[in-house]
Design brief:
The structure holds three protein chains of three kinds.
Chain A (H helix, E strand, L loop, with lengths): L2 H29 L18 H6 L4 H5 L2 H29 L7 H29 L4 H4 L4 H34 L5 H13 L2 H12 L4 H8 L13 H26 L2 H9 L4 H12 L1 H16 L3 H7 L6 H10 L4 H32 L2
Chain B lengths: L21 E10 L2 E11 L4 E5 L6 H9 L6 E6 L2 E2 L10 E4 L11 H10 L5 H14 L15 H13 L5 E5 L7 H18 L2 E6 L2 H7 L2 E6 L2 E6 L1 H6 L4 H6 L4 E7 L10 E5 L7 E4 L9 E6 L5 E3 L7 E12 L3 E9 L2 E8 L14 E6 L5 E3 L2
Parallel strand pairs in B: 3-8, 3-9, 6-7, 7-8
Antiparallel strand pairs in B: 1-2, 1-4, 4-5, 9-10, 11-12, 11-14, 12-13, 14-20, 15-19, 16-17, 16-19, 17-18
Chain C lengths: L5 H24 L16 H8 L1 H34 L6 H13 L2 H14 L6 H25 L3 H9 L4 H30 L2 H6 L7 H9 L5 H39 L1
Helix pairs in contact in C: 1-11, 2-11, 3-6, 3-8, 4-6, 6-8, 7-8
Classes of the chains: A mainly alpha, B alpha+beta, C mainly alpha.
Chain lengths: ~375, ~375, ~270
């Protein structure tokens, strides 16, 4: 490679190193520092030199935000994936040789793995606490707020991903079944909201969901309810917001796989004796699995770290990691703890991100 | 040209005084563990229309891309006019290439596509227009100069690609499957056009193709390649009539291959005759070879179906075999008969259909005689 | 045969109603006379007038457009370079890290990106302002640009570049006169995507902006926290209108070009 080629690589490389990687290392460092009352509210600074900085690093912030439990959960999840990917297929092969992999099997496997995972987490926590009394402080949950935030982020992300799939799949399916000349228009209609401001789309729901909002007005006027419903500032409003803003991310990948699918496959299935419903379940659904998986990750991953939706629609009762980080930083001005939360959030995200990347790579390989 | 006599056959490869335009000297190209070109040595002469023929993956495209400068040899050297072109980047080589996909620039008109290379040469601006017009005329594209590549047909695109690569008057033009995207009829017409253009411009052409008929039609010499090596380099006639191996014989055209051993003791009618024992019961095949292989060595006898005569009465010939017709492939102008001469050995014989179908007398299950002369086939030791 | 059942029709109707009704309500109520946003009191455009009187909003809008223009332009240059490297450079040392850094910002929660950049700017002593937002936006937007351009480059017939080299171009000349014009639509949509993302961003801008460089989303967010206001409705309507205009016209243009190309190809036969 000549010098021009090297320069071409060097420019974006250097940009990303300086403005992506180095900042992240700084976050890691600050998460290990103590809070100080001076501004900026942390010690020490890079200006003091590297070694003095290292000497005061500690894990206090992590203990404070209950990182131990997260680490245990993380280990549990890794075990769970190992169970699902390595042990379960072996058991299955031993017990049920020569059966085809169907969506039912995958679901059964996932449920089994989940059950195993819960047991794993409990075991890991117990073992850690028993073996290392010194770590007790670390493993305990000193401030329930953080742990609740992790759990409720996970819960909200899982539920809203499922709801988005439930609403998004029929839309994608209907789009793929629509007449050829309609499809570009439908596609544009799905993409259009994606280009409009995220903030505005979330904001639109405040007026709809509030106590004196349009939804309550409508329901009161037709007499379905007699008292206005409190939807805004509850988790339900967050689900609505997530489903609404992330719907295109679910519809597009599913539509892409369904659109590529050969129509004659369903016809062949029906020709061979399937009803329309069983043809869908045995042919269309398994073939659209890659799109469903991609869509689910595309909704799940950003929802986990979401800030705007819970803070505008969720009210003070809804705690999510992104919101906690924001408040820790802007309201409590506790930068080291905010940094520690960021590191933990990233750790939680690593698993779905890696799984998503592998799914994408598998798809690319299959398509040649 | 070095030939003093204008009537002489064009055969610079037989002329020891002639200097080759291109020399591959022990060239090897590896991609990781895979050896695409294996210690290959080859000379190509000026004004040749040289065809690289072989199945996909035999290394013919790699060989061509090394001439174009898109791959560099792992070992060995490539000389153009006696100069090592290894370190010369593609844009500085006096070599142009016509790509398999044509690689026409979709955002430029036909005119601008042809002028593309000229604008990057040292040709004065006012001459570029003339040269482009000349190329348009040569390829009969005058009417389409203002169109974009997607606005013309496949055959026209092929001609634009040719005009563009010839515009800079390269010493050497490389053609990568130039006719692969055309339908059969158009391909035949274009083959003759290519030959005319090659002759009128006097450019050396190296063509890569997997279509043996195409290679035979257009080329002065054909190189049959297999697994990164040259199986045979010769004129189309020699390749067809005197293949040097069973591989070449089988790759080019239709052939009957019969394995046997040279008979002992050697009963020899002349210095060049060979008798091949191929079956315990049937008579040996009488053939001839310039240097007959030693007695008892195993050989393959190759004979083209059109050189095997078929008849219902026993003819008088150097070789006569009896058999039963298993299959008849009627191809219009000719028919190919599949005749079982021994259990499991089927020999194909071709006959022209001079008479109408109803008047021909050979049909399935008929008992027939196959015959050929002692010089009709080739004895192969490889 | 495609069967378009009542089920499909229903899911499309409800799906698109769900997607568009909230925005439609927003637009309708931006023309409401009353300040009470949930009570309709007659048609009026007075909130638009008030919006254009509001110096703070106009200043923030100007800052936002400036930031979006510069960050998307730099991001397009860097992102196109990165895409070209990913597709064409083959193996080089640190390729794994490079592709990781290109893809990570796409899935990184904005709060983390914002926080880390802010801490970085403080560590190197750079005052927060328009420059820091531009730097931050460029960094995450270049990754989106690179994804868009990469997908175009992957389907790009490499023999076009080889043909250009063969006809005497230097590698840079080949990129400028052949590759770039052909991938231009992808580069432009990458720029538009980067521009929109920057225009839209609240979280990263909140972390990296200084007191003098408030962007429109930050202004909207602080106003919206107090509830629905008709001025914000009017502002939203303008933004939705602009985006709709852009997307619809872009898709009409691209469809017309595609149609023309098909007609041309048929004509050539």
């Amino acid at each position: 490679m000549n010098w021009r080629g090297r320069l071409l690589i060097a420019i974006p490389y250097a940009w990303l190193l300086v403005l992506f990687l180095v900042p992240f290392v700084i976050v890691l460092k600050i998460s290990l520092s103590d809070i100080a009352l001076a501004i900026p509210p942390y010690t020490p600074n890079l200006k003091d030199g590297f070694w003095p900085m290292l000497s005061v690093l500690d894990l206090e912030n992590y203990a404070f935000i209950g990182a131990g439990a997260v680490v245990a959960g993380f280990a549990g999840l890794v075990l769970c994936i190992a169970m699902y990917r390595v042990i379960f297929p072996r058991i299955r092969r031993a017990m049920l040789p020569e059966t085809a992999d169907t969506i039912f099997d995958s679901a059964a496997a996932a449920l089994t793995a989940l059950a195993v995972a819960i047991v794993n987490v409990a075991i890991v926590v117990a073992v850690l606490a028993f073996l290392f009394p010194a770590l007790n402080a670390f493993v305990e949950i000193p401030d329930f707020l953080y742990f609740a935030a992790y759990l409720s982020s996970l819960k909200i992300a899982v539920i809203s991903t499922f709801l988005t799939l439930l609403i998004g799949y029929p839309i994608a399916y209907a789009m793929a079944r629509a007449a050829q000349h309609w499809r570009p228009t439908l596609l544009m209609l799905v993409i259009l909201p994606f280009w409009t401001s995220f903030l505005i789309r979330v904001y639109a729901w405040i007026g709809i969901l509030s106590t004196e909002g349009y939804l309550n007005q409508l329901l009161l006027s037709i007499g379905v309810i007699s008292e206005p419903l409190a939807i805004l500032n509850t988790p339900i409003a967050v689900y609505v917001g997530v489903v609404y803003t992330y719907l295109p991310f679910m519809v597009l990948p599913i539509y892409a796989t369904l659109d590529k699918m050969d129509d004659s496959l369903v016809e062949a299935a029906e020709d061979l004796g399937c009803t329309a419903l069983s043809a869908f379940w045995l042919v269309t659904a398994p073939l659209s699995k890659p799109g469903v998986i991609a869509g689910c990750f595309l909704v799940f991953i950003p929802t986990l770290g979401e800030f705007v939706i819970p803070s505008l629609l969720g009210g003070s009762d809804t705690v999510m990691i992104g919101k906690v980080l924001w408040e820790e930083f802007f309201n409590n001005r506790d930068w080291p703890v905010a940094s520690a939360v960021a590191v933990i959030l990233l750790m939680i995200l690593i698993i779905p991100i890696v799984l998503f990347q592998r799914n994408e790579q598998k798809q690319r390989e299959l398509e040649g | 040209m070095a030939h003093a006599n204008p009537d002489a056959v064009f055969a610079p490869w037989d002329d020891p005084v002639e200097k080759p335009l291109i020399q591959f000297k022990n060239v090897t190209k590896r991609f990781g563990d895979f050896t695409a070109i294996d210690d290959l040595t080859l000379d190509i002469y000026a004004k040749e229309f040289f065809a690289l023929l072989g199945p996909s993956g035999c290394g013919k495209t790699t060989l061509m891309r090394m001439l174009g400068g898109f791959e560099t040899p792992t070992e060995g050297t490539i000389l153009l006019d006696g100069v090592d072109i290894g370190p010369v980047p593609p844009n500085e080589r006096p070599v142009n290439m016509m790509f398999q996909s044509y690689a026409l620039f979709p955002h430029l008109s036909v005119w601008d596509n042809i002028a593309f290379g000229l604008k990057r040469s040292d040709m004065p601006k006012d001459q570029i227009g003339d040269r482009v017009e000349q190329m348009l005329k040569l390829t009969q594209l005058g009417k389409f100069a203002g169109r974009k590549p997607h606005q013309i047909s496949g055959g026209q695109r092929q001609r634009v690609a040719l005009a563009r690569s010839l515009a800079k008057a390269p010493k050497l033009l490389l053609l990568d499957e130039p006719l692969g995207a055309l339908d059969k009829k158009l391909r035949h017409e274009t083959q003759f056009e290519l030959m005319d253009i090659q002759e009128s411009t006097g450019t050396t052409f190296v063509i890569v193709t997997h279509d043996q008929e195409e290679a035979m039609t257009v080329a002065t010499r054909v190189a049959v390649m297999t697994e990164g090596k040259l199986a045979q380099v010769a004129t189309p006639e020699v390749i067809y009539e005197a293949p040097n191996s069973a591989y070449v014989a089988d790759f080019i055209g239709d052939v009957n291959l019969i394995e046997g051993t040279v008979e002992v003791p050697a009963k020899r009618a002349s210095e060049t005759s060979v008798a091949i024992k191929w079956s315990a019961t049937a008579p040996a095949i009488n053939a001839s070879a310039d240097t007959p292989p030693p007695a008892a060595s195993s050989v393959t006898f190759a004979i083209r179906p059109e050189k095997v005569a078929i008849s219902s009465t026993k003819p008088k010939a150097a070789n006569v075999l009896e058999g039963k017709i298993l299959d008849i492939a009627y191809l219009g102008n000719i028919s190919t008969y599949h005749v079982e001469v021994a259990p499991g050995l089927i020999i194909k014989a071709q006959a022209t259909n001079a008479k109408r179908v109803s008047r021909r007398n050979l049909t399935w299950e008929d008992h027939v005689y196959l015959s050929w002369t002692d010089t009709a086939g080739v004895v192969l030791t490889a | 045969m495609r069967r378009f059942s009542w089920f499909n029709a229903t899911s499309l109707t409800f799906g698109f109603a769900f997607l568009y009704l909230p925005m439609l309500i927003l637009i309708i109520y931006s023309f409401n006379e009353s300040r009470l946003v949930t009570v309709w009191a007659g048609f009026s455009t007075k909130w638009y007038g008030e919006l254009f009187q509001n110096e703070q909003f106009l200043d923030a809008a100007w800052v936002t457009v400036k930031v979006a223009f510069w960050s998307s332009t730099i991001a397009t240059v860097l992102g196109t370079m990165a895409a070209y490297i990913m597709v064409r450079a083959g193996r080089f040392r640190g390729r794994g890290l490079f592709s990781g850094m290109i893809y990570a910002p796409l899935v990184m929660p904005e709060v983390i990106t914002g926080l880390s950049l802010l801490l970085f700017f403080i560590a190197i002593g750079l005052d927060r302002g328009v420059l820091t937002i531009v730097l931050a936006h460029t960094t995450f937007a270049m990754c989106y640009v690179s994804v868009v351009v990469t997908s175009r480059l992957v389907s790009f017939d490499q023999s076009l570049e080889e043909a250009a080299l063969d006809l005497g171009c230097t590698p840079f000349d080949a990129f400028r006169s052949v590759t770039l014009p052909i991938i231009m639509p992808a580069v432009i949509s990458g720029w538009l995507l980067a521009f929109t993302l920057s225009l839209d961003d609240l979280v990263i801008a909140s972390f990296t902006s200084g007191p003098s460089s408030t962007t429109l989303p930050i202004k909207i967010f602080s106003a919206v926290r107090l509830g629905v206001t008709p001025e914000i409705n009017a502002l939203s309507t303008i933004m939705i209108g602009l985006v709709t205009l852009g997307v619809v016209s872009a898709s009409l243009v691209s469809r017309a070009t595609a149609k023309k190309a098909r007609a041309d190809e048929q004509a050539a036969g």
